[in-house]
């Protein structure tokens, strides 16, 4: 057991290391003088030279990498071109994206999972077709377009919800939810569609499984069969799906934050690339990659804990 | 009586006929096939299908409503919206197909090798897949665009790379299962070399799953291209693309919302058609799924 | 079986905990108030995120807006764009040889940390602007060689050459005075907690999100200050900014895009304040920048670079009025000079030509160029730039030019421009009160931003003399000659002057903007 966890963690560490190298090299590959990120409108060549000197931008790349990793392990991700510590910016902005992602997950799950169950239970009937079609639509609609439309209708024309921005929960819980509602819906739509389909397919498989047939034969009520056995097993499959959808969630968060003007972590990633702010970019993408690996690791571990077959045989992932 | 034939059908041909019948019996699948084919044809023959050249500006008729001349009106520079949507289909179809083909070409061999040989090779492949997965496609695309400059080619590349990890998992999974099949074990026992086994026995039996997956990857790539062009990382104006059109429509949301509606609808229609088609194909080709 | 039965609820429970954590954690983020209703806090939405809030290092336009409210300077502009004293007690006096400037400092002024402002403090700040490595102010006040304290409230600046633009420079960041106590405490990291003289003082900043200021108890005119605080929010997307104003989530917005203007004008709860910018926008042409700024000029050989007739033909193919109408909805001011009409240095006798495709084709023939003449035009990546590029492409196309658009992200584009890796670039300049600030560094042979790779000895002479001359009439004449050379040679095709429009809620009084385009809300109040 410990060996197993150790192996998984070791693998995760390798991934993080590789990711950090890619991030670092990628940032260096960006064209444009990095010193310019610190220079904005006026660009005096002498000043640029001084900037390069101060930040060691002319040192050999491996040296810069080691220096960066060393500091990063101590929690110091450097300062960005505005003189603000990168770690501080990241720590301040992650909660916004976390909240957005969590709300989106909730909405996606609250809509998708019941829809999937109903569709599976009422397979072949009108409600199944309706739910399946809606799910298909959810997969086919570009969610940034949905966001634009929602802004037109609900913010600009009806004035029911704010067009963007953010208010911390602690300050104004209602306002916070008002600001987050549309972005969360936009982000959660695609997720609910995927969840619905996975849930439906998993439920159908479980409902046809032997032990369920046995339960039915034993005379358990349909509700008990669905509720107790099929539902729980399916939830496990769904958790795995959520783990797989993380990448899509992060990508989606980036665009959603852009459209709704939320200063979250997703947008930070894109902004830092656009601004050639090396320090910020490296810190941000590294944290994103690490976060992703960690969550995946947790999902992975819990999944294989439940399903011992996977652990031993390396079986077939969902 | 009906199955006494002049020439008996081979098992494969018989299976194909069965599949065709099952497919044709599903209206949604047939409909989506029609839509997909129409899109592809419109894209390929855009020059003849579109009523106006996509770049023909008319500064005296900007943001015009629908008319006989311009069925869907004009955009912010007086260009015909309908023609631009038809031409825009080219970028979407190109990105959709090529990204998917690229992803398959990379993912399938890797999945085959990993699933067949297992052990250390498989572990390395799994790690590489994990690393790739740690970078969401948008970050990849932004990075590529920043390094190589934004273009449809680079966007297609980014989308293709992002589509690789899930396809590796699927082809690997399929390989793992298929290698246990009797005919494969027989071939191994007979001393056939690995290449033959992979190429003659395993791969052909994966094709139906792969076709389904490809058809389902395309709509994601189409939407992905729209996202990247919307963010300025893909097709560059003045080349029309649905994402570019949506980006240009953004400032006009309150004044001329129709500029945002039409390209968005086009994306939804195309993606929906491919998704339905993929679902229909899966029902028909993959008897394992209980539907 | 039993293991599986317990998994479901545990998974659900975990999800709920995660959600709760997310919500609570989000509460940990964010700082002071964001709304505008409670306690008199004004919320202003800026179009970009300022760079470092350190007057010596700052380079962004939006940064100047924040500084206006928390970092006063020796001189300032009034509504007529005339220079008036702010931290100085009066206008500066010059010695007869014009190379010594004496400035009297206002008395009874305290920095926002309570320490007093005197001549020593002024000297410290000016020296820091002159000598700090990476200072962005050094080139702005380069002729100043020494700053002396001539009395507790008098400073004397020594110049190595006559330099008329100096007072104008001291009416911008080069004249901002910082607290010596804070400089010695933070040094290079002054931007993390800047302290100057201001109606408001710095509280906190979240990168890319907001900057929070609160009323300063030490301000010398604090009874004029009605607000309790100002929060600057960063909303880069123009439609998002407009939407936030219309939904009253912010009180003031910076720069309304032309496409958002009609909706804001129709909104009875909002008003628009505007002023024509003192800057310009146009097309910069790479004539002789082959290997970077500061290197010797060497004609790059493109059609536009090789013959001035071709540049003139290109200009003749463009219709400034159509650009204004189609790209900007008629909200900018077409122009062909580096200064706008409102500038005292404008020359009304120079008329901007209208479009003439015939004339353009004629000029091309004269230059011996056969269509299609290729022009690579670098533009930005936003929607307005896309429209502009396509309109130029279409118009120039009719005259025989084949314009290839190169949408490039801004920082990269600036880098390319500096290195000479471009043919032409649609770019502008935010503008300075003194025309020298709009012209010298771009077209003088020693200009620090001469990425055109172009200059002429006559132009150099005119610009140098304009710096030394002190009377308005003399300088006007010199600049008129400068304009004529620019119009003939066209290394820069000036196309329009932006009109800075800011949106304000009618419940806010006292918000103004002058020609420099900066939002001034220090004495604003909420009704």
Provide a descriptive summary of the structure in words.
Chain A has helices at 2-29, 45-54, 61-73, 86-121, 126-140, 143-157, 173-207, 210-218, 222-244, 246-260, 265-274, 278-306, 308-313. Chain A has 318 residues and is mostly helical. In chain A, α4 packs across α7 (173-207). The longest helix of chain A has 36 residues, at 86-121. Chain A is globular and about 85 Å long. The two termini of chain A are 22 Å apart. Chain B has 291 residues and is mainly alpha-helical. Chain B is flat, with a radius of gyration of 23 Å. Chain B starts with 10 loop residues before the first helix and ends in a 6-residue tail after the last helix. Chain B has helices at residues 11-24, 27-44, 46-49, 81-117, 119-133, 137-148, 152-178, 182-189, 194-230, 242-249, 258-285. Chain B is built from eleven helices and no strands. Helix content of chain C is 33%, strand content 21%. In chain C, the strands form six sheets. In chain C, strands 8-9-10-1-11-19-12 form a seven-stranded mixed β-sheet, with helices on both faces. Chain C has a six-stranded mixed β-sheet with strand order 14-18-13-17-15-16. A four-stranded antiparallel β-sheet of chain C has the order 4-5-7-6, covered by helices on one side. Mean pLDDT of chain C is 88; it is low at 1-38. At the A-C interface, α2, α4, α6, α9 and α10 of A face α1, α6 and α13 of C.
DSSP E strands of chain A, number:
0
Reported for the largest beta sheet of chain B, the result is: none
**Helix/strand structural class of chain A:** mainly alpha
- Overall residue-averaged pLDDT value of chain B: 84
Radius of gyration of chain A: 24 Å
The greatest inter-chain interface is formed by: A-C, 74 and 73 residues
Q: What is the number of beta strands of chain B?
A: 0
Helix content of chain B: over 70%
SS class of chain B: mainly alpha
**How much strand content do the residues of chain B show?**
under 5%
Specify Rg of chain B, calculated over alpha carbons: 23 Å
Q: Which outline of chain B best applies?
A: flat
Give helix % range of chain A.
over 70%
């Amino acid at each position: 057991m410990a060996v197993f966890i150790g192996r998984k963690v070791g693998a995760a560490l390798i991934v993080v290391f590789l990711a950090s190298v890619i991030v670092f090299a990628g940032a260096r590959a960006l064209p444009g003088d990095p010193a310019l990120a610190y220079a904005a409108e006026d660009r005096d060549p002498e000043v640029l030279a001084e900037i390069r000197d101060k930040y060691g931008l002319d040192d050999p790349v491996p040296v810069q990498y080691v220096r960066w990793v060393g500091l990063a392990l101590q929690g110091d991700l450097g300062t960005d071109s505005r003189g603000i510590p990168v770690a501080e910016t990241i720590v301040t902005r992650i909660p916004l994206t976390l909240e957005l992602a969590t709300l989106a997950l909730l909405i996606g799950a609250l809509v998708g999972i019941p829809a999937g169950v109903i569709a599976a239970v009422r397979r072949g009937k009108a409600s199944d077709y309706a739910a399946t079609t809606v799910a298909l639509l959810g997969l086919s609609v570009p969610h940034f377009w949905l966001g634009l439309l929602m802004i037109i209708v609900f913010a600009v024309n009806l004035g029911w919800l704010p067009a963007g921005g953010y208010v911390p929960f602690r300050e104004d819980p209602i306002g916070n939810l008002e600001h987050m509602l549309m972005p969360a819906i936009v982000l959660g739509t695609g997720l609910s569609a995927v969840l619905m389909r996975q849930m439906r397919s998993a439920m159908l498989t479980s409902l046809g499984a032997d032990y369920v047939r046995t339960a039915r034969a034993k005379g358990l009520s349909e509700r008990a069969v669905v509720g107790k056995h099929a539902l729980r097993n399916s939830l496990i499959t769904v958790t795995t799906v959520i783990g797989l959808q993380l990448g899509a969630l992060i990508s989606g968060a980036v665009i959603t934050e852009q459209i709704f003007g939320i200063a979250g972590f997703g947008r930070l990633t894109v902004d830092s690339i656009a601004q050639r702010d090396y320090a910020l970019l490296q810190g941000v993408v590294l944290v994103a990659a690490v976060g992703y690996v960690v969550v995946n690791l947790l999902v992975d571990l819990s999944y294989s804990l439940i399903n011992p077959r996977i652990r031993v045989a390396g079986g077939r992932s969902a | 009586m009906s199955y006494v034939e002049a020439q008996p059908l081979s098992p494969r041909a018989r299976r194909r006929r069965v599949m065709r019948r099952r497919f044709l019996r599903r209206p949604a699948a047939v409909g989506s096939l029609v839509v997909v084919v129409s899109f592809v044809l419109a894209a390929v023959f855009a020059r003849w299908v579109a009523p106006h050249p996509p770049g023909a500006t008319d500064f005296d008729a900007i943001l015009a409503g629908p008319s006989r001349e311009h069925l869907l009106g004009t955009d912010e520079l007086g260009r015909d919206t309908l023609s631009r949507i038809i031409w825009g289909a080219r970028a979407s179809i190109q990105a959709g197909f090529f990204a998917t083909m690229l992803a398959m070409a990379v993912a399938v061999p890797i999945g085959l090798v990993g699933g067949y040989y297992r052990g250390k090779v498989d572990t390395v492949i799994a790690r590489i897949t994990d690393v790739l997965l740690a970078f969401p496609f948008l970050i990849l695309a932004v990075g590529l665009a920043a390094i190589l400059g934004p273009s449809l080619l680079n966007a297609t590349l980014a989308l293709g790379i992002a589509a690789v990890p899930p396809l590796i998992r699927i082809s690997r999974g399929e390989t793992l299962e298929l290698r246990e099949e009797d005919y494969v074990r027989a071939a191994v026992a007979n001393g056939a070399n690995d290449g033959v086994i992979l190429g003659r026995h395993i791969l052909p039996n994966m094709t139906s799953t792969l076709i389904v997956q490809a058809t389902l990857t395309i709509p994601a790539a189409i939407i992905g291209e729209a996202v990247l062009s919307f963010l300025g990382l893909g097709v560059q104006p003045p080349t029309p693309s649905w994402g570019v059109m949506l980006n240009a429509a953004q400032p006009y949301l309150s004044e001329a919302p129709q500029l945002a509606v039409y390209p968005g609808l086009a994306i939804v229609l195309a993606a929906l058609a491919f998704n339905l088609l993929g679902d229909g194909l899966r029902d028909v080709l993959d008897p394992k799924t209980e539907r | 079986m039993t293991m599986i039965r317990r998994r479901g609820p545990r998974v659900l429970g975990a999800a709920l905990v995660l959600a709760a954590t997310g919500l609570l954690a989000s509460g940990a983020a964010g700082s002071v108030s964001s709304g505008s209703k409670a306690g008199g806090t004004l919320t202003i939405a800026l179009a970009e995120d300022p760079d470092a809030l350190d007057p010596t290092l700052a380079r962004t336009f939006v940064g100047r807006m924040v500084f206006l409210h928390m970092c006063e300077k020796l001189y300032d502009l009034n509504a007529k764009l005339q220079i008036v004293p702010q931290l100085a007690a009066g206008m500066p006096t010059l010695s007869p040889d014009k190379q010594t400037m004496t400035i009297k400092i206002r008395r009874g002024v305290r920095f926002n940390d309570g320490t007093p402002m005197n001549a020593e403090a002024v000297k410290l700040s000016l020296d820091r602007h002159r000598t700090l490595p990476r200072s962005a102010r050094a080139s702005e006040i380069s002729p100043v060689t020494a700053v002396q304290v001539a009395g507790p409230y008098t400073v004397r600046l020594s110049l190595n050459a006559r330099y008329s633009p100096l007072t104008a420079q001291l009416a911008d960041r080069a004249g901002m005075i910082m607290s010596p106590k804070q400089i010695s405490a933070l040094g290079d990291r002054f931007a993390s907690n800047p302290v100057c003289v201001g109606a408001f003082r710095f509280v906190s900043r979240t990168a890319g999100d907001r900057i929070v200021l609160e009323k300063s108890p030490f301000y010398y005119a604090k009874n004029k200050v009605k607000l309790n605080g100002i929060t600057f929010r960063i909303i880069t997307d123009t439609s998002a900014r407009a939407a936030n104003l219309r939904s009253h989530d912010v009180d003031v917005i910076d720069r309304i895009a032309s496409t958002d203007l009609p909706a804001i004008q129709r909104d009875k709860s909002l008003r628009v304040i505007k002023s024509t910018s003192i800057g310009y926008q146009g097309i910069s042409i790479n004539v002789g920048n082959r290997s970077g700024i500061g290197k010797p000029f060497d004609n790059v050989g493109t059609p536009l670079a090789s013959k001035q007739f071709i540049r003139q033909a290109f200009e003749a193919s463009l219709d400034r009025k159509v650009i204004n109408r189609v790209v900007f909805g008629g909200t900018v001011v077409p122009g062909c000079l580096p200064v706008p009409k409102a500038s005292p240095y404008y020359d009304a006798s120079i008329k901007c030509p209208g479009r003439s495709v015939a004339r353009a084709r004629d000029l091309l023939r004269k230059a011996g160029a056969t269509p299609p003449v290729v022009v690579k035009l670098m533009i930005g990546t936003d929607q307005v730039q896309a429209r502009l590029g396509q309109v130029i492409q279409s118009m120039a196309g009719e005259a025989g030019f084949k314009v290839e658009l190169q949408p490039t992200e801004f920082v990269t584009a600036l880098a390319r421009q500096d290195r000479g890796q471009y043919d032409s670039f649609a770019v502008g300049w935010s503008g300075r009160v003194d025309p020298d600030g709009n012209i010298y560094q771009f077209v003088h042979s020693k200009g620090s931003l001469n990425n055109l790779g172009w200059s002429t000895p006559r132009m150099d002479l005119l610009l140098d003399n304009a710096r030394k001359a002190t009377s308005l009439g003399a300088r006007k004449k010199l600049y008129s000659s400068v304009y004529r050379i620019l119009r003939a040679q066209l290394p820069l095709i000036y196309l329009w002057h932006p009109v800075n429009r800011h949106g304000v809620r009618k419940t806010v009084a006292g918000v103004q903007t002058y020609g420099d385009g900066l939002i001034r809300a220090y004495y604003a109040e909420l009704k």
